[in-house]
Amino acid sequence: MSSKPSIDPTWTTTLGKALSPRSEWPDKDELLDVIYWGKQVLSLLVGLVFGFTPMTGFLGILSYIVISSVVAQHYVTKFQSVDEDEVGGFWELSKEGFGAAFATYMVTWITVYTYTMTE
Length: 119
Prior knowledge:
Elements: H1 11-19, H2 28-52, H3 57-79, H4 90-95, H5 98-118
Keywords: Endoplasmic reticulum, Membrane, Transmembrane, Transmembrane helix
InterPro entries: EMC6-like, RCAF1
Main location: endoplasmic reticulum
């Protein structure tokens, strides 16, 4: 009487699905986790670019918010071909991981900007 064990997705299989277009996402929380971590990486990259640019003020914050929202939306609807309503719609995609990603962006942006301006 052996039953088939439930297979939890590991980070390597999830990463493989995340980097492959039109992957199957039976668990929408797994896709939202990918969006969360993708925003973390994007925040780090945008923070580095804006810090070295050097971009300042409200324009830097507004630009980050737009970039973060548009990239998440594009990733889900175009790259993964998932209907955004299946994962909660545009606002849910925009909000997913926003607080933590915004903090990553701000720390990176301020640190890089401060470092480049002191030299």
